[in-house]
Amino acid sequence: MKKFLCAVVLLACGLMALGYAVFYRGFYVNFAFGGERAVTADFRAEGKTLLARNSAGEWQPLTIRGVELSSAVPGHHIT
Q: What whole-number distance in Å separates Cα of residue 58 and Cα of residue 52?
């Protein structure tokens, strides 16, 4: 029973140390075998404009549409 408890405590401590290293210290393992791959982004911000890259690689303005779900009467503010 002592061996089992020691193994469980050591495993728990190891997992906590790994979690601390990953989430608080930035420990990172690169699993991209076969060479380095460049990091790319398909969206970016220029001032107050959001831009999205199209299939040709050009940046186009991105419009985000949504619905206001407030409890106010349309056209009036809640005060």
A: 8
